């Protein structure tokens, strides 16, 4: 088992900032050697033909800012987006290398960018933080780190690499810790009366499938009323200005990571995952079929056929084979408006993808990797506005 943790970071990423405040404790808990790896995120984006500022639907852009604030609040960290974000970080990254990747310097630069709103591209600020360093002398070293990041499959920040295993994002640090043989701290569960949890899903999403395997148990643990809300993902994407199949628009390294990440999550939840024979799949029929008689059993029956057995649930023969009668399949057409209304409800709630959760009718949470936020809110945590 590898005992090194390579942490690739750029000061311009807020999630890298949040991760930088946790990674030293993670290394200490696991006895791993932490190797700080400053790299130029813009250089990686250029090499992968990805824009520095990704074009996002407004609903998603708003949500990501909210998600960052929530993560910072959970960690007790200040976080303030500078109005000029993203700022240039070349000088700060070179200064970091000149100082031998001193953690005190790294934290000072992060604090300047994300807590104090200072311009860390300004040489005066750089020298105030790092001292009288030769920035030009680190040009090749920063390029070498950026080239190494690309060679090892890095496509964004933060990236934590244990051996040959890449974990992207602040929210995958616990996976890196597990790879190092550690046990990430568990959050307590609380149950409060009167909670509601709306779960928006489409059978076309593997992420929604993973969430569907967990959401009933989560609702039971927290004493919450679970409401199952199907929506047509393609219609939602058109409404919010998202591309039809986001997976197809990703860079190849990111797409490869996502595919591996899905398998890691499936293993974590202890559920099978098999890519369906048809993707993207048409799900209008199974969504309407579900709406005839909404239940967790019917939802999971369809999800498992698609993502445990790899079958095309848009095919009437497949639906018949997993237990739906001819009469039910024919009657599904009566649910056309119901599906339109349910999709609109998701759009009105601020959803821009699935799975999406709405806690107590107020707090939108996106992604099965944010179930810990859902559980915390159902347990009484009030996230920042």
Can you offer a commentary on this structure?
- The protein is of the alpha/beta class and 385 residues long.
- It is 48% helix and 10% strand.
- The chain has 18 helices and eight strands.
- It has helices at 14-20, 23-30, 41-47, 58-75, 90-98, 103-114, 123-130, 139-151, 173-179, 206-221, 233-240, 252-269, 284-292, 296-307, 316-321, 326-331, 336-348, 371-378, and strands spanning 4-9, 33-38, 159-162, 165-168, 196-201, 225-230, 356-359, 363-366.
- A four-stranded mixed beta sheet has the order 2-1-3-4, sandwiched between helices. A four-stranded mixed beta sheet has the order 6-5-7-8, sandwiched between helices.
- A hairpin with a 3-residue loop joins strand 7 and strand 8.
- Helix 11 crosses helix 17.
SSE diagram, text form:
Blueprint: E1 4-9, H1 14-20, H2 23-30, E2 33-38, H3 41-47, H4 58-75, H5 90-98, H6 103-114, H7 123-130, H8 139-151, E3 159-162, E4 165-168, H9 173-179, E5 196-201, H10 206-221, E6 225-230, H11 233-240, H12 252-269, H13 284-292, H14 296-307, H15 316-321, H16 326-331, H17 336-348, E7 356-359, E8 363-366, H18 371-378
Parallel strand pairs: 1-2, 5-6
Antiparallel strand pairs: 1-3, 3-4, 5-7, 7-8
Helix pairs in contact: 3-8, 5-7, 10-12, 10-14, 11-17
- Give the SSE string: EHHEHHHHHHEEHEHEHHHHHHHEEH
Characterize the largest beta sheet: strand count, sense, and whether it forms a barrel.
Answer: 4 strands, mixed
Share in helix: 40-55%
- Give the distance, in angstroms, between the N- and C-terminal Cα atoms: 42 Å
